Amino acid sequence: QVQLVESGGGLVQAGASLALSCAAEGRAFDTYAVAWFRQTPGREREVVAAISRSGGKSDYAVSVKGRFTISRDNGKNMVYLQMNSLNVDDTAVYYCAAVSTAQDMALFFNRRTYNVWGRGTQVTVSS
């Protein structure tokens, strides 16, 4: 089973961009579908973007579509989330999550599907 470590969070102004990274330690990372989630106090953890284990398929929450881009480099055991045109509603702790799957193009959006989680990285967007 892999372990995940997020990085790249910080404090930015509205309209700015930020790039998050998720480093996976372990073997066979290319057998894991991955997603980014985010959570604010008092709210459920929500999916932001998901990517298939090969990287050939991805999808986004409506709230971030057109602004965020998820990508992965299996050779480096890395997943990325490029966030553009940030607004205050994007403020949250962002988590990377992974689940092993035999389906090359599968995407998973339910947080209960994922069994590997990072500790999160805080993103704060000021107005």
Percentage of β-strand residues: over 45%
Helix share, percent: under 10%
Uncertain segments are: none
Structural class: mainly beta
The whole-angstrom Rg is 14 Å
Provide an overview of this structure.
It contains no helices and eleven strands. With about 130 residues, the protein is mainly beta. Strand 5 and strand 6 form a beta hairpin. It starts with a strand and ends with a strand.
Please describe the structure with a list of short key phrases separated by commas or semicolons.
seven-stranded mixed beta sheet, globular
Secondary structure: elements and pairs:
Layout: E1 3-7, E2 10-13, E3 18-25, E4 32-39, E5 46-51, E6 58-60, E7 68-73, E8 78-83, E9 92-100, E10 116-117, E11 121-126
Would you summarize the structure shown here?
The protein is mostly beta strands. It has strands at 3-7, 10-13, 18-25, 32-39, 46-51, 58-60, 68-73, 78-83, 92-100, 116-117, 121-126.
